Amino acid sequence: MEHPRITLITGGARSGKSSYALTLAGAYPPGRRYFVATAEARDAEFADRIERHRRDRGDGFVTVEEPVALARALDEIDDRAAIVVIDCLTLWIANLMERALDDDPILQRVDGLIAAARRARFHTVMVSGEVGSAIVPENPLARRFRDLLGWANQRIAQNAERAILMVAGCPLILK
Predict the structure, then answer these.
(1) What 3-state DSSP class applies to 166?
(2) Is the pLDDT of residue 2 over 60?
(3) Domain spans of the chain?
(4) What is the dihedral angle through the alpha carbons of 162, 167, 169, 175, rounded to the nearest 10 degrees?
(5) What is the mean pLDDT of the chain?
(6) Cβ–Cβ under 8 Å, residues 20 and 168
(7) What pLDDT is recorded for position 1?
(8) What is the per-residue pLDDT for 51?
(9) Among 9, 37, 94, 110, which residue's CB has the most CB atoms within a 10 Å radius?
(10) Residue 158 contacts by C-beta under 8 Å, 6 or more apart in sequence?
(11) Which residues are catalytic?
């Protein structure tokens, strides 16, 4: 079976999204696996999380740290990779919001990411949180974040050959 060009893995916190993405990437040869990390260590606890993720993925990945310019990062990887895991779009959207971008420019970057993944010669696995299943946030900033991430996830899922929802460590194949 041919590997899909774009896979979206979404789910709630601690649902197993990242672990499952690494499992999918394990089918590809070491040295041709890339990991694009969007997290920025802003405090000690988050630095510990980042370090734990590095240990979990081991030495089989080339890591690219890019909190904002994901389309450019994919273009720069070019033909060196067989698979690229982007972890995670949830932080990426927050990073873009933090840089005072309005909704339309953020969604244009989502479209740019999709275009970069479609022209890439490698398989792209995008990990993203599912934050729209809970109550509507009281805070306008939290509502905006929830909406932007939901729209981003929809756009990516519509353009992905495979979409997976993780629940309690179990993958539910949506398409």
Answers:
(1) strand
(2) no
(3) 6-173
(4) -10
(5) 92
(6) no
(7) 38
(8) 85
(9) 9
(10) none
(11) 53
